[in-house]
Design goal:
about 150 residues; about 40% strand
Amino acid sequence: MSVRDTPRFEPRDPDYDRRLRASFARQGFMETLGVEIARIAPGEVDLVLPYKPGLTQQHGYFHAGTTTTIADTAAGYAALSLFPAGTGVLTSEFKVNLLNPAEGERVVAEGRVVKPGRRLTICRADVYGEKAGKAVHVLTGLFTMVCIENLDG
């Protein structure tokens, strides 16, 4: 299934967009990295990270820790978009494959819910390096997200 074939889901919180943005704004690490939300929809979140030399490894590529971080965050917020109000999200497990070196003007992470659940939600995330108008698939991963009650965002 390609990302374009992602099923449509109904959020359990009609105010999910505001709740996600408020939660994201509290993430100091995302602010430190310079990550921005590009898109939010039920079960879908896209994040963008512009290139900065401080995000690279010794060969000048985005560090794998950077691309893995935004993949995890995009998947987590995709899951949170379907969770009820008054709940938060934590990652319980993930597996990523690094497909190509991540380079370019920016990297984009696309988080998508694969299978929602009351407690556990399975997500995928794909990260693309964008350089000179072309996108290269650099990471794909599968994530298990946990819905935590009484934890806002």
